């Protein structure tokens, strides 16, 4: 009996190993990448610009197509959507594959681990109005189900690269922006003199938010830092590097960093035990860049610890009084 019991457990362990450790197999593994992620171009009316791209397949062999999408700003926060763009109007901006026997939207086969280099020619006809135009060059699987609108380019069944095209008759750019919001997010604050201090409990997470607004006619690239320094009874300075990003015309965006938890904050850091701190945001806007600076301040204090201590003292005092009364009785 012991032998059969041993065999039963051995078979059970083997079955669990197969179920838990065996890799899942899909009918088709879609995995592509395209580089570069974006191109920033300034072109004059009547000119043609040629941009290089590389589409790489690291999944199963697939039939692909190349498509052009127009990128439209949806709101003032920098979110955008994409819609198919067709070069069927000779007076509008035209797209084509450069030095290629293939056409845009024409299916082609790409093998596993194959990288296809191609060039997209952009013709800016005479008479095109000066300003910014945003497009996406997308490699997508044939019979794609569609696309997803998002604040970052996310296409179902495809990969894309953004093209930031500025049409200018003389090559000059109108790049201007400002810091529309910088601070730390909390429900409590106090005023000491002319300075507002935001309040945080000890070891609480401190969320920073830094938003830029494009006040010019053309997009610009922004980058910068948030520096945190102790003012009084604190220790340790911190420098947060913000990720470089494009701010499209007539829109704004929250700058992010490696310490962002989501797109609603620029960084999150843990508060120390106690101290008064100042934080400064320094942002470079455009090329050549001009700096924008904004300051904020906050106080970290052990509110919860003091509350617990007061509660413990009151509880102890109440217990002592109660015990004395019992003893007298």
UniProtKB/TrEMBL annotation:
Signal peptide: 1-27
TM region positions: 305-323
UniProt keyword Signal present: yes
Keywords per UniProt: Membrane, Signal, Transmembrane, Transmembrane helix
Name of this protein: CARDB domain-containing protein
